[in-house]
Amino acid sequence: MKVICERAALLEAVNQVSGVVASRSPRPQLTCIKLSATKTDEGAELTLSGTDAEISLTVRIGRVDVAQEGTALIPADKLRQIISAEDNESTLTLETSGETTKIKGEDALFSLHGFDPADFPALADYKAIAEGSAASAAAKSLFVTEAGVVDSLISRTLFAAARENSRYAINGVLMVRDGKKLEMIATDGRRLAKSTVTISGDGEPTQCIIPSKALSMIQKLTSDTNEPVHIAITDNQAVFAFGDEPSDSRAVLTTNLVEGTFPPYDDVIPRDLDIKVTFNRDTLASAVKRAALLTNEESRGVRLSFTAENKQLELSSRAPEMGEANIKVDLVAYDGNDIEIGFNPTFITDALKVIHDPEIMIELKAANKPGLFKAGNDFLYVVMPVNLS
């Protein structure tokens, strides 16, 4: 293989694919990136692939000069470090002989020892997963939406997913497709985020749990918000293909699905809440952030005291041997009786970071009942209160 690449495009692709590569593995090939250089009458391209055996990513680069077709399997960390370090170069030349790849710049030459590309696992493409094969059934759900829609769904839910919880199913995010409605739901047992969008086309209702790592990788691929994303769901895999045509995608991410049963999330969403508070998002974000300054591990909560008469919220916090904070906020609207309730301030600020609506609503029932945060008609967030006594 011999190929001349634009360094910036190569670095972006290597950084993306490195995100799925295993950092450690008894199979050293899984710590590598596979490079495949091809040329046809329509042009030349370099394809980079990586996998940790659970998630795989393939990225294609155009605008390359392929002098000799071929493949190489190179350790991802060193490849990334070398390309990053050659920051004065506009192009780099990669040339492979056997299992050694030379990376040439204007004044530098690196020789990297790799592995036989034949030892890299075969990765299924979008078409194979969507249409099925002799060994696996065709996808049970196929649909397309825009990258910006996918990014918004992930941003508004992923932050609430559990991290390394023994209840394995909540370590991912539930994706539910029902006709034109597409939803993502995440929970860690103390809070729950749900985001909804409308997509084109109809299809059979289906749902699956997507690993958090895969969703983080998908976000890194959504640079063009208008780019189509083709999605296929099988019983144990999901594939996301970025580009106008799934058979000619610039990037394809495939992930195994999380096994297990997601909690019945509709049962968690409180109903008949009789206290409704409307906030300016930025005003609330500032107040919570300041009140959180005087909290610690022992006193993690912030007290929210709502008074109906003057439509005002007082936030207070106290930490032993540190001091206390009191902040007052005027409310846009208030409907209901006075109430005091405590929340983990981090849970509130996490949600406010992903809400773009200028106003949000909080619905409450009692000090020992969960609060429901709403933004528009497409986002809701349930937060369990904390005991401040």
In words, what does this structure look like?
The chain folds into three domains: 2-119, DNA Polymerase III, subunit A, domain 2 (DNA Polymerase III, Chain A, domain 2), CATH 3.10.150.10; 126-266, DNA Polymerase III, Chain A, domain 2, CATH 3.10.150; 269-383, DNA Polymerase III, subunit A, domain 2 (DNA Polymerase III, Chain A, domain 2, Roll), CATH 3.10.150.10. The protein has eight helices and 26 strands. It has helices at residues 7-18, 76-85, 126-131, 147-155, 212-220, 265-268, 281-291, 345-354; strands at residues 2-6, 32-40, 43-51, 55-61, 65-68, 70-75, 91-97, 100-104, 109-113, 141-146, 172-178, 181-187, 191-198, 206-211, 228-233, 237-242, 251-256, 275-280, 302-307, 312-319, 323-330, 333-335, 339-343, 359-364, 371-375, 379-383. The strands form four sheets. It has a nine-stranded antiparallel sheet. The chain has an eight-stranded antiparallel sheet with strand order 6-2-3-4-17-16-15-10. The protein has a five-stranded antiparallel sheet with strand order 5-1-7-8-9. Strand 19 (302-307) and strand 20 (312-319) form a beta hairpin. The N and C termini lie far apart (69 Å). The relative contact order is 0.11. The mean pLDDT is 93.
User: What CATH architecture label of the largest domain applies?
Assistant: Roll
Cα distance spanning the termini: 69 Å
Q: Give me the side-by-side strand order of the main sheet.
A: 14-11-12-13-26-25-24-18-22
What is the strand tally? 26
CATH topology of the largest domain: DNA Polymerase III, Chain A, domain 2
**SS field, number of helical segments:** 8
